Backbone:
């Protein structure tokens, strides 16, 4: 059963109960009031006709002589009926009260009539001198007719009012639930896969408005989660495909040289030495690729490495010295804060020293292999208040704009030929990005074609105070 049907049924039941209750109370009050009026009439008649009079058969005879009588009179001697005057006309009297014995005197009571006629309201008077009881009764036909007419009126009027109320309530609910129906249609559209669709906004100060706003917020988050999850799956598929491709290349080369040796094509001498050298080189490249993959896997699991205070200035100086010794075809420079004999030369962060060294090595290596010989690679460490900054710059050809957004993706190479002589494994900058994220830092790329590239890393800094003298 729908909510509208339930509400309609509830309103209908409530209206019917309310109308029934009001009708019963009204009928009961009116019936009581009319019965009280009959009692008053009987009391007035007794006061006018029998006050200070003894109860005797003469009174019955006198009343019996009238053409029309409003009241019925019954005279009991003991419990035996000795006299009766019926109400109504002489030739068309009402059915007599059905009273078989003398009732208790001094109280009003209701008595049935003989047959199936209307009842009577009666009052009894007792005369101890004559041991006789006189009962004065008035027919309740007018009261019963009035109550029947009132009941019929209440039933008809109440039914019309209940029907009108239910119809009005149904129309109001139809109008009020239009927004709910629209929200249901919108939700079904979203559930059908249209994540760009949103719930129709409603007035913000209404319950439907707050509900639509909450549903839209939920749909936004759901759409983001689904989109992000799909992007994650696509990245994972690409990662697995790229990893397989990168691993297959050195394995294929190693297998080829082994097969060449097994076929006798690489006998002892220069060919065998060359084959062994290539197998060693491909094996080293394979080991380097596996190491990079393991580093990324460990970073993806958010494994917290040991962190200690690390002096970035010292690590940058070590990285520049190592690069200068390894490559004489480039110029490596170390920049930093201005020389101030009174300033603390250290720039300290709370970090894992090995991972910070890897950041520097990867950034310098990336700048070196993507710039021609003679280019200058500059490493700068500076203090920016709450953060420490590492910037690695070069004056090489720069990165084309179409590659800049994906430069930190795994296995991505800006070199279209994917040359392994200049592109490495394609994981260097991905590792840098993962390490920086693990240290709650940020990484930015600024590159201009034919002008050079600068990669800037910002990390939270920890002051250690001035060095001891």
Residues:
């Amino acid at each position: 059963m729908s909510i509208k049907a339930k509400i309609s049924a509830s309103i209908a039941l409530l209206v019917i109960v309310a109308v029934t209750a009001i009708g019963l109370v009204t009928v009961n009050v009116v019936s009581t009031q009319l019965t009280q009026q009959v009692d008053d009439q009987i009391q007035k008649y007794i006061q006018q006709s029998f006050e200070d009079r003894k109860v005797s058969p003469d009174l019955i005879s006198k009343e019996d002589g009238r053409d029309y009588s409003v009241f019925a009179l019954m005279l009991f001697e003991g419990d035996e009926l000795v006299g009766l005057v019926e109400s109504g006309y002489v030739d068309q009297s009402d059915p007599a009260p059905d009273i078989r014995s003398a009732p208790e005197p001094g109280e009003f009571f209701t008595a049935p009539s003989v047959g199936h006629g209307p009842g009577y309201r009666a009052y009894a008077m007792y005369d101890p001198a004559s041991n006789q009881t006189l009962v004065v009764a008035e027919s309740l036909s007018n009261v019963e007719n009035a109550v029947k007419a009132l009941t019929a009126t209440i039933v008809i009027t109440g039914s019309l009012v209940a029907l009108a109320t239910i119809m009005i309530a149904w129309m109001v609910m139809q109008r009020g639930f239009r927004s709910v129906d629209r929200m249901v249609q919108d939700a079904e559209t979203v559930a059908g896969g249209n994540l760009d669709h949103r719930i129709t906004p409603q007035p913000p100060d209404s319950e439907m408005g707050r509900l639509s706003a909450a549903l839209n917020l939920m749909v936004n988050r759901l759409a983001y989660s689904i989109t992000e999850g799909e992007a994650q799956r696509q990245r994972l598929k690409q990662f697995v495909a790229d990893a397989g491709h990168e691993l297959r290349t050195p394995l294929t080369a190693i297998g080829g040289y082994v097969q060449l040796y097994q076929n006798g094509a690489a006998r002892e001498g220069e060919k065998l030495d060359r084959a062994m050298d290539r197998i060693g080189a491909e094996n080293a490249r394979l080991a380097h690729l596996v190491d990079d993959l393991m580093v990324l896997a460990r970073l993806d699991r958010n494994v917290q490495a040991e962190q200690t205070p690390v002096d970035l200035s010292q690590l940058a100086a070590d990285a520049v010295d190592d690069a200068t010794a390894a490559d004489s075809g480039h110029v490596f420079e170390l920049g930093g804060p201005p020389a101030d004999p009174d300033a603390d030369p250290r720039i300290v962060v709370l970090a894992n020293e090995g991972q910070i060294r890897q950041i520097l090595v990867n950034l310098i290596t990336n700048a070196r292999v993507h710039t021609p010989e003679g280019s200058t690679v500059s490493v700068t460490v500076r203090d920016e208040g709450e953060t420490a900054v590492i910037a690695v710059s070069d004056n090489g050809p720069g990165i084309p704009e179409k590659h800049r957004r994906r430069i930190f993706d795994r296995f991505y190479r800006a070199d279209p030929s994917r040359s392994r002589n200049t592109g490495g494994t394609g994981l260097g900058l991905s590792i840098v990005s993962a390490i920086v994220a693990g240290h709650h830092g940020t990484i930015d790329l600024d590159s201009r074609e034919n002008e050079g590239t600068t990669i800037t890393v910002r990390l939270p800094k920890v002051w250690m105070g001035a060095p001891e003298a």
